[in-house]
């Protein structure tokens, strides 16, 4: 497999596709969706183009794939943004027209269940972007998060190196979308404690691969991941979702990656801050801190037999917590354990 190539970036004033290849939640929460679209126009100067299944819950996977393929095929569209995640995109990617995608590479932005699409594009040789949800990030209550928007703006419009920044404050307790009035104030934030580094002091530069850990497990089960040889020398990134898998489950998934031979391929691993609060599991702040500690220990325990010399960075804001930094998927990353620095090339 050739090294993934970066697609041409959009410019302010361009048309960008808005798609829901996973869940059509814009149809259930139009107030959040419309806020996200308004900010896309006003903050980024981009014109959103909605596709037929964008607001449809439970749309046929073939119809969602048809929309995504059409977005890549349209020469007037210069980037593709997913509205949100979900849990069944693994049934959509088999219906994509790979010839169209290869012939019309475009920046694709999504995370969570969109790991299915990011991995699919990676295997087609196209760099995509982990992060940037229309509902969750563009539609953030109160105000956009400055770190998220600075990162998203750089990923959308620039092609150089970008230094990631540890968040001075972060959150994982969102406002409920079912109450439109909660869009008026920002969600709860907690003091940031910086990144946590593990392993030798060395500098690693490579291409990224990974995504939402639970989705990676599904991709391994369906044998849709790259080979160990294709990933050799890459940097693994992963994070856990709002379903909050236990430390034991995280251990087992990471261990399974080791048994498959994948872990040994990565000289560095970047781990997103775990989400430790959900509406059905409203943990206290001390409980959330303990949750994060247990997950870090589980990952190190699982990693050690397979790659004890990897550089590992924990609590990077790249997943289901707030803010969210955009990571090029298949693009270049620099993990500098000497100067404690992470940079990505957009």
Description:
The chain has 346 residues and is of the alpha/beta class. The chain folds into 2 domains: 15-161, Murein tetrapeptidase LD-carboxypeptidase, N-terminal domain (Rossmann fold), CATH 3.40.50; 169-345, LD-carboxypeptidase A C-terminal domain-like (Glucose Oxidase, domain 1). The chain has 10 helices and 16 strands.
Ordered list of secondary-structure elements with their pairings:
Layout: E1 15-19, H1 30-44, E2 47-50, H2 61-73, E3 77-82, H3 98-103, E4 108-110, H4 115-123, E5 128-130, H5 134-138, H6 146-157, E6 161-163, E7 169-173, E8 188-191, E9 196-198, E10 203-212, H7 213-221, H8 228-231, E11 235-239, H9 247-260, E12 268-272, H10 285-303, E13 311-316, E14 327-329, E15 332-336, E16 341-345
Parallel strand pairs: 1-2, 1-3, 3-4, 4-5, 10-11, 11-12, 12-13
Antiparallel strand pairs: 5-14, 6-16, 7-8, 9-13, 10-15, 15-16
Helix pairs in contact: 7-9, 9-10
Please count the helical segments. 10
Beta strand %: 15-25%
The CATH first-level class of the largest domain comes to Alpha Beta
CATH architecture of the largest domain: 3-Layer(bba) Sandwich
- Going across the major beta sheet, what is the strand order? 6-16-15-10-11-12-13-9
Helix content: 25-40%
Task: Kindly report how far apart the N and C termini lie.
Answer: 21 Å
The CATH H-level homologous superfamily of the largest domain: LD-carboxypeptidase A C-terminal domain-like
Counted beta strands: 16
Radius of gyration: 19 Å
Describe the main β-sheet briefly.
8 strands, mixed
**Low-confidence spans: pLDDT under 50, at least 5 residues?**
none
Order of helices and strands: EHEHEHEHEHHEEEEEHHEHEHEEEE
Q: Which whole number gives the mean pLDDT?
A: 97
Number of domains: 2
Q: What general form does the structure show?
A: globular
CATH fold call of the largest domain: Glucose Oxidase, domain 1
Structural class: alpha/beta
Describe the oligomeric state of these chains in a short phrase: single chain
Family: Belongs to the peptidase S66 family.
Domain LD-carboxypeptidase N-terminal: 16-131
Pfam family, one: Peptidase_S66
Keywords: Carboxypeptidase, Hydrolase, Protease
